[in-house]
Amino acid sequence: MKKQTKVVLVSGLILLGVLMNSGQVLAYEAGDVDPIQNNQQILDKVDNGDIELKGWIGTFDPTEAPDPEQPTPSDTDASWVNVMMPVTVLFGSLESDKGSVYGPTYEIKNNSVKGVKVSAQNVTAVANAIDSGLDLNMVADNGAVTIPLVKTDGSLLDTATEVKALTTGGSVDFTLQGQFSGVYPTVETGPLTPKYNLSLKFDVQ
């Protein structure tokens, strides 16, 4: 089987604010060469013969190396992806922070037997988006990668940008950081509560 890189899945994170290398897989796809070695028999001077019909029907587990005698998805199939990531990512800023925006640290982990490249694909506004004054970035891989998600003019990420290529069992940390240059609301008026959706793209490698 040839090593290929294919887009197989897109997923999303909700952003809430309060201001193994793929290698060769020993399993078969439809029409592949028989993966069982020495799988021949010679029938000599007989008028009949038997062939075992051995089936396997089930659900593919991308966290386990495929059995040579079991079917495997094609490289374009989303069945290869098994990634653990948060559902919701928080960010915020207090008036006393003087414009600093920050959040907890999160992790994206690859549980698949194949490598997976993680990219931030786009950001969309869900509710209460801030039109100007918010600068929000995804800071990943211990600060090695910074991806602008929301810019101060209100524009949002719309071009896929690589976060990190993860090997089997590999992970990448990330957090949200930025600045708020707008006017902080008072206790009486209540906080700003912007909500965005960050879509991630996974490429099997």
TrEMBL record:
Superkingdom field: Bacteria
Sorted UniProt keywords: Signal
Signal peptide: 1-27
Region annotation Disordered: where it falls in the sequence: 58-78
Protein name according to UniProt: WxL domain-containing protein
Organism: Enterococcus ureasiticus
